[in-house]
Amino acid sequence: MKIFVLDRDGREHPLDALEGWRVMEVIRDWGLPMRAECGGAALCGTCMVRIARQWLDRVPAPQDDELDMLDRLGAEDAATRLSCQILLSAELDGLRVALVPEEEMADA
Ligand code: FES
Fold first, then answer.
1. I need a labelling partner for 71 at 20 to 30 A (CA). Which of 21, 49, 84, 100 fits?
2. Using a 6 Å cutoff on CB, does residue 27 contact ligand 1?
Protein backbone atom coordinates (compact mmCIF):
# COMPACT_ATOMS: atom_id res chain seq x y z
CA MET A 1 0.00 0.00 0.00
CA LYS A 2 1.00 3.61 -0.40
CA ILE A 3 0.35 6.91 1.27
CA PHE A 4 0.96 10.31 -0.32
CA VAL A 5 2.55 13.02 1.79
CA LEU A 6 2.71 16.67 0.82
CA ASP A 7 5.82 18.26 2.31
CA ARG A 8 6.18 21.85 3.50
CA ASP A 9 7.53 22.91 0.11
CA GLY A 10 4.45 21.63 -1.68
CA ARG A 11 6.04 18.45 -3.07
CA GLU A 12 4.10 15.23 -2.88
CA HIS A 13 5.91 12.04 -1.86
CA PRO A 14 4.38 8.63 -2.61
CA LEU A 15 5.56 6.40 0.25
CA ASP A 16 5.36 2.63 0.44
CA ALA A 17 3.59 1.69 3.65
CA LEU A 18 2.47 -1.41 5.51
CA GLU A 19 -0.84 -2.25 7.09
CA GLY A 20 -0.59 -1.99 10.87
CA TRP A 21 1.96 0.81 10.79
CA ARG A 22 1.19 4.27 12.02
CA VAL A 23 1.18 7.12 9.52
CA MET A 24 3.84 8.84 11.67
CA GLU A 25 6.17 5.83 11.43
CA VAL A 26 5.91 5.70 7.64
CA ILE A 27 6.64 9.41 7.25
CA ARG A 28 9.55 9.30 9.68
CA ASP A 29 11.06 6.10 8.32
CA TRP A 30 11.09 7.48 4.77
CA GLY A 31 13.11 10.43 6.04
CA LEU A 32 10.59 13.23 5.76
CA PRO A 33 10.76 15.82 8.53
CA MET A 34 8.70 14.41 11.40
CA ARG A 35 9.83 15.10 14.95
CA ALA A 36 7.41 12.72 16.70
CA GLU A 37 9.21 13.40 19.96
CA CYS A 38 7.08 11.22 22.24
CA GLY A 39 7.44 8.21 19.96
CA GLY A 40 3.75 7.86 19.28
CA ALA A 41 2.12 8.24 22.69
CA ALA A 42 -0.12 11.23 21.78
CA LEU A 43 1.82 13.32 24.30
CA CYS A 44 3.87 15.77 22.24
CA GLY A 45 1.90 17.06 19.28
CA THR A 46 4.95 17.13 17.00
CA CYS A 47 3.54 14.65 14.48
CA MET A 48 0.58 16.69 13.28
CA VAL A 49 -0.66 16.29 9.74
CA ARG A 50 -3.65 17.50 7.77
CA ILE A 51 -5.79 14.83 6.18
CA ALA A 52 -6.87 15.56 2.61
CA ARG A 53 -10.57 16.44 2.53
CA GLN A 54 -11.54 13.48 0.37
CA TRP A 55 -10.14 11.11 3.03
CA LEU A 56 -11.73 12.68 6.08
CA ASP A 57 -14.64 10.28 6.38
CA ARG A 58 -12.45 7.21 5.86
CA VAL A 59 -9.92 7.88 8.62
CA PRO A 60 -11.11 6.49 11.98
CA ALA A 61 -12.19 9.19 14.43
CA PRO A 62 -9.72 10.31 17.11
CA GLN A 63 -9.82 8.71 20.56
CA ASP A 64 -9.83 10.69 23.80
CA ASP A 65 -6.01 10.94 24.17
CA GLU A 66 -5.66 12.40 20.70
CA LEU A 67 -8.63 14.71 21.16
CA ASP A 68 -7.12 16.04 24.40
CA MET A 69 -3.80 16.79 22.72
CA LEU A 70 -5.43 18.37 19.66
CA ASP A 71 -7.46 20.53 22.01
CA ARG A 72 -4.31 21.64 23.86
CA LEU A 73 -2.72 22.50 20.51
CA GLY A 74 -5.74 24.56 19.49
CA ALA A 75 -6.45 22.41 16.44
CA GLU A 76 -9.99 23.28 15.48
CA ASP A 77 -10.13 21.65 12.07
CA ALA A 78 -11.23 18.00 11.89
CA ALA A 79 -8.58 17.50 9.19
CA THR A 80 -5.79 18.14 11.70
CA ARG A 81 -4.69 14.91 13.34
CA LEU A 82 -1.82 13.31 15.19
CA SER A 83 -0.24 11.01 12.62
CA CYS A 84 0.94 8.65 15.37
CA GLN A 85 -2.67 7.85 16.18
CA ILE A 86 -3.66 6.80 12.66
CA LEU A 87 -3.12 3.10 12.12
CA LEU A 88 -2.91 2.07 8.49
CA SER A 89 -5.41 -0.46 7.21
CA ALA A 90 -6.24 -1.62 3.68
CA GLU A 91 -9.04 0.96 3.58
CA LEU A 92 -6.45 3.72 3.89
CA ASP A 93 -4.40 2.62 0.87
CA GLY A 94 -3.77 5.83 -1.08
CA LEU A 95 -4.31 8.13 1.92
CA ARG A 96 -3.19 11.72 1.34
CA VAL A 97 -1.90 13.89 4.16
CA ALA A 98 0.10 17.12 4.38
CA LEU A 99 2.81 17.97 6.89
CA VAL A 100 1.79 20.85 9.17
CA PRO A 101 4.10 23.91 9.24
CA GLU A 102 6.63 23.72 12.10
CA GLU A 103 5.31 26.92 13.68
CA GLU A 104 1.94 25.25 14.28
CA MET A 105 3.52 22.36 16.15
CA ALA A 106 3.92 22.11 19.88
CA ASP A 107 7.34 22.66 21.41
CA ALA A 108 7.54 19.47 23.36
S1 FES B 1 4.51 11.38 18.19
FE2 FES B 1 4.02 12.55 19.93
S3 FES B 1 1.93 13.00 19.66
FE4 FES B 1 2.42 11.80 17.93
1. 21
2. no
